[in-house]
Amino acid sequence: MKPRISVITLGVDDLEKSLKFYRDGLGLPTEGIVGQEYEHGAVAFFDLQSGLKLAIWKRKDIAYDTNLKQTPISPTEFTIGHNVESKDEVDKVMEQARKAGAVITIPAHDTFWGGYSGYFQDPDGHLWEVVWNPAWEFSKKDNI
Which residue of 12, 78, 86, 135 pairs with 18 in a disulfide if CB–CB is 3.0 to 4.6 A? Predict the structure, then answer.
């Protein structure tokens, strides 16, 4: 398999609320909700970097589309890592997320491995880690 992951989809309960969180609160670029004319089709896409998109889609519609039973939410099944260029940027993104309505689960702090990170949950409980890793360098074009 060639690694061509182009969309990461998060299941949400309230599409409008999640749209406001990601678009208005975190400032991610989007055209808004599309596909509303189709049953189970309403979705919003956010442009990230290098052609990667984040999608939000109702959990019940994902269950329908995959023919799986909708299960209880488990926020510890995965995290989304948002790597930034400095400790200061970690603090700024964490504060932006808090103001947007995120729940801060772990405030930004120095890590045991020499970095700096914190965790927050979006309105549906998905975990995001905002992290500065001194061993990784990013160009300005990689950041949104």
Answer: 12
- Give yes or no for a contact between 68 and 114, defined as CB atoms under 8 angstroms apart: no
**Can you list the residues of the chain whose pLDDT is less than 70?**
138-144
| CB-CB contact of 141 with 50 (8 Å) | no
Query: What confidence score (pLDDT) does residue 144 get?
Result: 46
C-alpha to C-alpha distances, 88 to 54, 84, 95, 103, 142, nearest whole angstrom:
25, 9, 11, 19, 18
Give the span between the Cα atoms of 44 and 32, in whole angstroms. 5
Give the domains, in start order, of the chain with CATH numbers: 7-66 (3.10.180.10), 79-142 (3.10.180.10)
- The first and second tokens of residue 33, run together, are 């909700």
The beta-strand segments (E) located in 38-112 are 43-47, 53-58, 79-84, 103-110
Residue 128 CB neighbours (<10 A): 20
What is the structure's pLDDT at 49? 85
Q: How many other CB atoms are there within 10 angstroms of residue 109's CB atom?
A: 11
pTM score: 0.88
